[in-house]
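Exercise: predict the structure of this protein bound to phosphoric acid mono(formamide)ester.
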Amino acid sequence: MRHLLEIDDLTVDELQHVLALAQSPSPPQVLAGKGMALVFEKPSLRTRNSMEMAVFQLGGLPVYIQGDEIGLDTRESVEDVTNTLAGFHAAIGARVFEHSKVERMAAVDRIPIVNLLSDAAHPMQALADMLTIIEEFGSVEGRIVSYIGDSNNVTRSLGLAVGMLGGIFRIASPTDYSFGEDDLAMLRSTGGVVETMTDPYEAVDGCDVVYSDVFTSMGQEAETEIRLKAFADYQINEALMAAAGDAVFLHCLPAHRGEEVTSGVVDSPASRVWKLAENRMHAARGYLAFALGGDA
Ligand code: CP
Ligand code: NVA
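Solution:
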């Protein structure tokens, strides 16, 4: 039984295998005649569509379920929902607020659980991030990936994946929005090099990839104003990209143009954001082929 709650639920070898499967031109029909439940407590464009298309390409039926409709822990407990869905489906993907909800689904241990973004992690995004970096540079090893902005769910999974594949991960966040020692120790547990700083210009010096995410994640909307002030110096704009030299630009999206990144950067020749978005589908297909295909 394979659950993917965070990217380091895979070994390095397994991660490399998943990324190879993601690039395979002939998807194994591991979901033929089977379903995958996709539960979303928050909105989604990329994750929902990439998962639905990946399930379809593997021969299965994706069933989208809105969190409000089933009421995780309000209409029914997480465990009762999981046990019920396990009777219909080969796997459950879930986008939740509290990470503990995907942990509780996994603890039921009847069918594989895939974290589709929680407050702590976004492993399916990290798979696509790695695929995109590999397509660009041939490998992640030795590449410097500079993440600018809020230290959050996307940052954790990205940093772990970069470390697992031998890259160097830099994070530039304002002090109040930086990772504490626990998170840094967790990121370094891969053996990867993690460098932290507060100056975005220092972070992008000599880097290969500049990576951005929103300043205000889903569920933090009440903090928008205070966050916009705190992150005022952390916008990825033309001047910062010029300081980054030949680096490419990635963003998990959705981008808040004019906040964490300018339109000029999103739409620039250095931007690989549409490639990254498409890679969500290939990465999802690779992971599901691994987890449900008897490889795991
Ligand atoms: N990057 C990402 O997860 O996008 P969505 O929120 O649209 O799924
Ligand atoms: N950090 C963002 C990622 C969106 C894909 C959020 O949690 O809203």
